[in-house]
Design a protein that fits this description.
about 140 residues, mainly alpha, about 5% strand, WH_DNA-bd_sf, Rrf2 family transcriptional regulator, WH-like_DNA-bd_sf
């Protein structure tokens, strides 16, 4: 459902959040390794998240990426929007360019509920709720 960029971005945010909750800064190379993403690709994703104030970074020998406490309340829909835009809520289930209520694909009306449920889940799930409620090691380990 999500692009690779968004999948890696969500996994990176959750890993950084888990480490930040333990008082740790995380180096980009460790993030890349933990989420099984190429370093250059991970760097671009982290840069985008930093530019949008989801994560922060500190340079230097004791530096790394963190998520500030107030950003832990960020909902997943904000991260998805930053990385993928709103196409997940509006795009065709079959990837067709011309698909809407007036000219639907065979899956169009079946996808309406799925997209609405996904939107509600993303809007009502915060970073903090995931790191508090789940065992993230199972979620973000290399696949």
């Amino acid at each position: 459902m999500f692009s690779k960029t968004c999948e890696y971005g969500l996994r990176a945010v959750l890993f950084i959040a888990q480490e930040s909750a333990n008082g740790n800064k995380v180096r980009m190379s460790l993030i890349s390794e933990e989420i099984n993403s190429p370093q250059a690709f991970t760097a671009k994703i982290l840069q985008q998240l930093k530019r949008n104030n989801i994560i922060t970074s500190v340079k230097g020998p004791y530096g790394g990426f963190t998520i500030e406490e107030d950003k832990m309340d960020t909902n997943l829909s904000e991260i998805v929007s930053i990385l993928d835009g709103d196409s997940i809520y509006k795009g065709c289930g079959l990837g067709l360019k011309q698909c809407d209520a007036n000219s639907p694909c065979p899956l169009h009306f079946k996808f309406v509920d799925i997209r609405e449920n996904l939107k509600n889940m993303l809007e009502n799930t915060s970073i903090k709720s995931l790191i508090n409620d789940m065992n993230l090691k199972n979620l973000i380990l290399k696949r």
